[in-house]
Amino acid sequence: MDLYQIKNMIIDDEQYSEESITVDFTNNNKRYSITLNKADLEVVNTWVFENNTSIPASLPDEIIKSIKEDVKKQIN
User: Across the strands, what pairs with 27?
Assistant: First the structure.
């Protein structure tokens, strides 16, 4: 059973003068977005979309770690 399903991934080469990667995914029927620094894959921010708005999300380390591994596979 998958923890999440990636819906979209965007590599932004110029956001705030640093490259970043934004991954949109679903987990438990909720939509999330996580932005990572491309250089070291450190988390910049995480959001959950609820009631037509986005709010900061707290994601389990297991999901973050797994998403980082998926991103590494895509950018290498």
Answer: 30
Alpha-carbon gap, residue 57 to 15, rounded angstroms: 21
CA torsion 43-48-54-55 (nearest 10°) is: -70
**Cα(25)–Cα(35) distance, integer angstroms:** 11
Give the whole-angstrom CA distance, residue 11 versus residue 28.
Answer: 25
49 and 30 Cβ atoms separated by less than 8 Å: yes
d(CA 37, CA 44): 6
**Single pTM value for the model:** 0.87
Q: What's the pLDDT score for residue 14?
A: 67
